[in-house]
Amino acid sequence: MRSWCQALRALAVLNIGLWLAVALAGPVVGVHGRLQLGLSGVYVLVCAYRSLLPRVDLERLVVVDIRLSSIFLGRTAATVAEICFALQLGLFVHQLAAHAGLPLVQSAAWAVPMFMVVAQGFCWHSVLTLNHLTQAVESALWAGGFSWMAVLLGVIASNSGGWVQALSLVGIVGAMSFVAYVVTVDMPMYWRRYRHGRASGQVYLRLDAGARDAWHRRVPSGSWDAWKADALWLTPYFSVGVWVSIAMACVPGV
Fold first, then answer.
1. Residue 110 lies in a domain
2. Low-confidence stretches of the chain (pLDDT beneath 70)
3. Strand partners of residue 56
4. Per its UniProt entry, which superkingdom is the organism in (predicted)?
5. CB atoms within 10 A of CB 166
6. Torsion angle, CA of 3/9/10/16, rounded to 10 degrees?
7. Alpha-carbon span 60 to 55, nearest angstrom
């Protein structure tokens, strides 16, 4: 458990350093590049905060029992960061479609972040009510957004060449890898937790009561058994996810 926490702290420092390196000396050009960099900066900072004070929202699980570990506070920060990341994905597809001369795909690209924005509502419902079922729906919406992204990138790859085609193909592999992970790991995990909660008489909270609970209640634990299932998604979230966010700032503008 200690090694994992140390790794998360190291990732937080590394990721901030990488973002600063790209911001100061990286190939960030044009309005799109600067917008990507700004959105990425929000994502990097929030992920650093959540890496230093990890938590599992519905279980109210925290490592460090301080007010900054508040589930409500962490989820609020995560919502802002995830919307920024979703906008980055849409902008990424939009940029590649512009280079490929595909205006319809440019417009369709903005459906990608819409999936993720809608997912935030289901996420908040699950966090406040303690219902894992809507957490599974949230994951399904993220998978839907990445699936649509892969479709659009496929269109771009079929109508382009050179680095645009290559980057589109890389994006397809990344998007479909994420979808496969969500379908085989995330959604089944939340479904199992939902069924376990139902079987054990889980009491679901009203939204107002859930907001108070999420703000005040924390369950501190340093046991690896309590964390290992969620470490499977937290670790790539705070590493690969951040690196993808930073990399998108380096995509050439139009």
1. yes
2. 254
3. 61
4. Bacteria
5. 12
6. 160
7. 7
